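EI: anyone free to look at a 332-residue chain?
SC: sure, send it
EI:
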Amino acid sequence: MKSDVCSSVSSLIIIPCLNEEKHIEPLLGKLSTELDDLNAQIVVADGGSKDATREIVARTSAIDPRIVLLDNPRRIQSAAINLAVATFGRDYDYMIRIDAHGDYPADYCRRLVQEAVETQADSVVVAMQTVGFGTFQKATAFAQNSKLGNGGSKHREGAKGHWTNHGHHALMRIAAFDTVGGYDETFSHNEDAELDYRLKKAGFGIWMTDKTRMIYYPRSSVATLFRQYLGYGRGRAKNILKHGSMPSLRQLLPLLVVPVFIGAFLAVLNWAAVIPFSLWAVACVGYGFWMAVGQRNPYGPLAAVSAMVMHFAWSAGFWMELLSFRGRKASS
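SC: here you go
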């Protein structure tokens, strides 16, 4: 019966990717097994991979024509989704967004379609569990799965199925996506939250499912993690500048990290200036040691370092975007 529900509607599965030779083949292998129960097509929107990604997709497509390779000249994920929907979307009811840098349950797409049909949601979002392999990646995963790293975000921790304002993008009704104009391609990060704001404003419903979730592999070095969260911070600031949507409390706290870091240099004038920054650092390190002892997690102290990198980069990105906007406005 559930397969009948899935085959009664059509789905466009979109995978934006760039240099994902390590992940794309097993991912396509897993997703293609779902195509037998879904009225669906897979589109890999590649941003100009220099590794073997394109060759792998082309070889897989030759075996299964339901898998298509699409060039994404703009490279970024928001443009990849928009282009895939514009090219193929008219023939489908839903689009399902898949992150090439992640893993999924074998019935992931079917669960999403079932939830969309049963709830009549315009968008179905999921929780995201982070998993690492190397030492730093494992520590980062523990940080991102904890309140220290995610601030209690429900789409990071998971929750009972409920209507929400935002979550990790999974499935969306193409009619709703088109109505609000798709992703804003000026956003290289945080484009999902920006789109969710417009969906809610237009009266569309966003459902967070507890029937499935995705697994995400975090960045494996300090530099790449810093750049990622710098982009997230800039994206959040752009959201505020575009819509006036203020950060939540869990986002306001890390937002203060860079100001208190800069303020700490005033300790040359008054030692008390270093107190706010010290409290943040002690809180992070203390939480890390609590994870190590209370949760018997050997990666706890290093997870605290990952969390501090994320907090600082997110705050730096936010203020960089805000100040650059003010600079552009003043010069215009």
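EI: Residues 237-331 form one domain.
SC: 👍
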